[in-house]
Structure formats: C-alpha cells, structure tokens
Amino acid sequence: MGQRSLSHYMEPAAKILFILSASAAIIAVGLICVFLFMQGLPAIWNIGVFNFLLGTDWRPTWNPPLFGILPMIVGSLYVTAGAILFGVPIGIFAAAFMAKFCPAPLYKILKPAINLLAGIPSVVYGYFGMTVLVPFVREIFGGTGNSILTASLLLGMMILPTIITISESAIRAIPSEIYEGAIALGASHENATFRVVLPAAKSGVMASIILGIGRAVGETMAVRMVAGNQAVLRMPHEFLSGTRTLTANIVLELGYAYGDHRASLIATGVVLFVFVMLINTLFSLLKKKDGV
C-alpha cells in the first residue's frame, strides 16, 4: 500500500520536473531577450535606427560620438558566409563518409578526432590561425594575412565538428529499409547514399547547419585574433581586407565603455541576437517549404 501510494505521487512530481526542465531553455532565452531589449532598444532609439544600422563611422570618443555599425554588420556577414562556404560542404560530405563509407578501423580514429576538435578552446584555434593560417594566406593570396578570408577558413574549421556529428547521427537514424530499397531498385551505393538517404536526413542536416552558423556568428576570440580588427573601421570590400565583427567589437570595448558607449555595445548585441533569430527563422521556413 505504501509503495502504491508513493508511485501515485511520484508520477505527477516527475511530470512537473520534466516540464520545468524542458522550460529551462525557454526561460533562459526569455531572460536574455528581456535584458538585451531593455538595455539596447533605448540606445538604438536615442542614436537613431538608421544612424545606428547604416552609419559607417564608429567613433565613441568623438564629441559628439558616432555609433555606426554597418561595417561590422557587413564584416560579420562576410565572415559567416565564408565559413558556410568552406565548412558546410566539407562537413556534410565528411558525415556521409563516416556514416556510409568509412571502414571500421578508420572510424575508430576519426570519431575521437572530431570529438576532440569540438573540445578545443577558441583561443587555441585563434593561435593556430595566427601562426599557420595567417602566414599561409599572406604567402598564397597576398595582403597582410589578417583578413576576412583567414577568419572564414578558421571558422569553417571550427564549425566542422558540429555539422559532422549531427549530420552523421541524422544519416544513421534513417531506417535501413530506405537504403536497401534503393539498392534493390538498382541504385549504386553512392547513388543510394546521396540521392536517397541524405535527402531523407535533410531535417537533421539542416539542424546541423543552423547550429554551425550560430557557432560562426557568435565566435569572438578566434575571429578577433585573425580578422584584422582595424582601429578605424572601414567598409570591407574584399575577402583579403581586414574587418571587425559585431562580437569582436563588443569584447574589445565593453571593458572600458560607459554611458552611451556601453549602451550602444549592448544595442550591438541586440542586432546580433536578431541576426541569429532571422537565420533560424529562414531555415525553419525553408524546412516547411520542403515539407521536412
């Protein structure tokens, strides 16, 4: 009787615990939204929406100060686009190889190596970029080496573990009957993998891309070390020019900023947050359009 009574109370208690656990992420995002928008929107309003978003001068020490973040928005877009260009195709093909083509002995080496890549700190990636990628880009393409191209290569490398791991899991989750049916109809191993199994795993692959883009957009330390970070901001006009991203600008100046300067940096965080939300919304609409 006592055990039956105990189980009677434990089930609703467990439901409550699971609901609270599932709500933790929503609550955290809500609190972040409240903080950012309460602190950042008044600054954007005071500066002027168009002056803030489309202004090309960031000079917080001038009188009057100028808070224009357009060069940083463009720089962030360039770096993120470059990381997607380098990281996404390699990540998807690597995931397909590991799920359907990789021999077991080689898989035992590759899987821990990819997991290790995911655990390397950003500053170590940044040091690798400074000592290896910057001289490489300078030697092959010219310029100083501290450029959008270097940051894109480095970020493309950093998002690989996320894309490979999630995409591989999505491919392995596809029922074997789908693959076997394609083989039975005469498809080769390669055609069955890339024309049947991979499209069937589209939802998981797109989720990996979204998480990879989120990593690329939010990365700060490594990009700061290799992207150039000009003291006087200029509109980036090519991939060999340096830039300063939104995240790097916040990190560089938040430590000594105060007043309107600090508020404008928090407003930069609002823009970054909206940017990530737009990317997630765009991918969600694409998934609905494709029926995923």
General description of the model:
The structure is a single chain. The protein is mainly α. The protein has 2 domains: 2-59, no CATH class; 70-291, MetI-like fold, CATH 1.10.3720.10. 78% of the residues lie in helices and 1% in strands. The protein is built from 12 helices and 2 strands. It has helices spanning 2-47, 49-54, 70-101, 104-119, 122-141, 148-172, 176-184, 189-200, 202-218, 221-226, 246-253, 260-289; strands spanning 58-59, 66-67. Strands 1-2 form a two-stranded antiparallel ribbon. Helix 3 (70-101) packs parallel to helix 6 (148-172), helix 5 crosses helix 6 (148-172) and helix 11 (246-253) runs antiparallel to helix 12 (260-289). It is globular. The termini are far apart. 34% of the residues are buried.
In short:
With 292 residues, the protein is mainly α.
List keywords for this structure.
292 residues; mainly alpha; MetI-like fold; 2 domains; two-stranded antiparallel sheet; 2 strands; 78% helix
Topology:
Layout: H1 2-47, H2 49-54, E1 58-59, E2 66-67, H3 70-101, H4 104-119, H5 122-141, H6 148-172, H7 176-184, H8 189-200, H9 202-218, H10 221-226, H11 246-253, H12 260-289
Say what the CATH topology of the largest domain is. Answer: MetI-like fold
Total tally of structural domains:
2
Form type: globular
| Helical proportion, percent range | over 70%
